[in-house]
Fold this protein.
Amino acid sequence: MNGYADTIVRVDLTTGKVSKEPTPDKLKMDFIGGRGFGAYYLFSEVPAKTEPLSPANKVIISTGPLSGLMIPGAGKMDWTTKSPLTGGYASSSLGGMMTAELKYAGIDSLIIEGKSEKPVYLFIENDKIEIRDAAQFWGKGCFEVEQEMKHLFGEEFQIAVIGPGGENGVLFGSVNHDYGRQAGRGGIGTVLGYKKLKAIAVHGTNEIKVADLEAYRKAGMDLFKACKDAEGLKPWQSYGTTIVTSWCDEVGALPTRNYTSGSFEGGKTLYGPVMRDQIVITDKGCFGCPSPCGKYSHMKKYNTRVEGPEYETIGMLGSNLGISNIEDVAEANRLCDDLGIDTISTGSVIGWAIECYEKGILTKEQTDGMELKFGDPEMVLTMIKKIAKREGLGDLLSQGVKKAAKKIGKGSEKFAIHVKGMEQSAYATHAATAMLLAYMTCDVGAHHNRAWAITYDLQVGRAKVTPEKVEKVIWFQNFRPMFDVFGSCRLQWVELSIDRDLYCPALEAITGVHRDWKELEKVGERIWNLTRLYWLREVEGFDRNWDMPPERFYTEPPTSGATKGQITKLADVNILLDMYYDQRGWTHEGAPTPETLSRLGISEFAL
Ligand code: SF4
């Protein structure tokens, strides 16, 4: 099949062996690429109940059939592993420039196995794949290493690197690339840190064969034209994801002071136009992107620069911590990126710690003498460094909010905002039932990008609990992650509203295989069910309790803002879950039935 590099590369860090094998045709048909390949290899090759931080765990880095080609935003790659944060499936999408270089180097998936004795990095230049000593880079921040490697190898090399957070075992260590893009969620950087793999540097020059060059050229141009003509292009390009900050504040979805509210009285100074005016110096995009959402910022107060902050980071390191100065938020963002820790999880654990302190659950003895209060940027910057070093209170927080709350107890579990052990990203869901369900059932834990359903809640009635809402969430979950399978960005569809049908001729021209969205959604559903099986296999006693939202969302109405006093009742939470399982073809405890697996052609994976 065309559109692939046709090679899977394995790097065994224990033995130092590098091997190659052809990309199986069945894999291309059934799982297509990217996230599909990652889910397949994780389920098939990492033995059941493997410790996430053990040599047997693998990190699977996959491009897709669109990656590196002339398709809008075709610069995405998937990173999959068993998560040290949640103990289940982790998959994170990374933008930037690296996926194209990996594909041009002739690699569909790069599978990192084993564990090195000493720090190493991986050097890839077409057929030349070498494991090299990384002593000079270990312990350094992501920006410094990326810059040093670019100087050593050349600007054409693309670098993915972990920071001290991942090296030190912070359970939400991220992978960083292109001075500001991350595979941020679930601790993929932590697994690489355990394996002592500091970085991957890659450059390739091979061509990618497409099935029908003329049809590919036309389909690509149609997609680019649709983006160029889109009404939403100008505002999106001006503000990127920060376009939603004001909307979230107005509708009560902006996480504020550890999700005690969905509106922030200091929110206006965090809005997109304010940020653009005060700190943004230029736009920055991924490979082949006609609508760059990255904003490169200069923080005069600190004399530093960062790509960002994007909306999730503003929500979690800004309003969620009571911080209203965009420069402070951007500096917190820069520190997290450089130290290699996820901004969303970091904002969540610090918010939880502040609330613990306010309630007298954590005392000054436990906070290294620090006063924890909302709205204190200096404390936040100090705490980020402590988390990355696992120093003092930072050691507790480095384990994520679920484990930290379990250790501290005293009722703090009630306001630990996570699902399945993953800290919830930046949408308050006290009164937004579709978005609440999307978080509850997301395949990696409480992450928004599989099913961004909150606008639908507002459209049809935020408190409604209906089969239509459940259907919408499932549709999103089957369909939206397909962009991670293709190796391209979903935001042209989401934000510019380009016709998703334009992708089908492109995929066909590239691969030579005709597929419509009905068939593609079935692939998405197949992957969703496979990852569900993964949770069931890996986590002892995994049942519907694992799909329950943070208690705060059904017990404590927001104290202010648009959703003041509104809440989703526990009974409704359970109704949502029952309807979801029923529509998915799962049991009352959330397990896919044999009929569902058979319908999706994955009975071979039945437990
Ligand atoms: Fe990258 Fe943003 Fe463009 Fe998507 S919209 S490809 S994330 S720059």
Notes: The chain has a mean pLDDT of 97. The chain has 26 helices and 17 strands.
